[in-house]
Amino acid sequence: MDCSFEGIGHMRVTFPDGGCTEGKVCKLNSAGSAVDCSAGDLFCGVAEVVRGGLAGVQIRGFAVIGYSGTAPTAGYVSLSADGSGGVKTDAAGKRCLVAQVDTAAKTVTVEL
User: Fold this and answer.
1) pLDDT tens across 25-42, in order?
2) Is the pTM of this model over 0.90?
3) CA-to-CA distance for 98 and 47, rounded, in angstroms?
4) Under a CB-based contact definition with an 8 Å cutoff, are residues 25 and 77 in contact?
5) Cα-atom radius of gyration of the chain, to the nearest Å?
């Protein structure tokens, strides 16, 4: 039986779009706009919708995110942006609950 975390605790906030990409982790710049993360950045969420100068960013709940490097393990893991729209393990990163790891697809299901 597969587990599904879809929709659990989901919260999306609309920010001005400062240059973020749908489906990728993002952060807020000093003006409060959502922007793509660079490698090592702490992410605030995942850009779900970018349209009309606005970005709908998922900031809470479970999200499926691509990862690079060593596969994170289930449990609490420190993650930061990998610079390609996904995440990587990083001791100085944001502590998140990793619920599932798919090494074939190189994705993790993370509670933001």
Assistant:
1) 999 999 999 999 999 999
2) yes
3) 19
4) no
5) 13
- Would you say the C-alpha torsion 65, 67, 54, 97 has a positive or negative sign? positive
DSSP the chain: -----TTTT-EEEEEEBSS--TTSEEEE-TTS-EEEPPTTPPP-EEEEEEETTEEEEEEESEEEEEB-SSPP-SEEEEEEE-SSSSEEE-TTSEEEEEEEEETTTTEEEEE-
CA distance 98 to 56: 23
Residue 67 CA: distances (Å) to CA of 13, 32, 64:
23, 26, 10
User: Which tokens go with 52?
Assistant: 């009309």
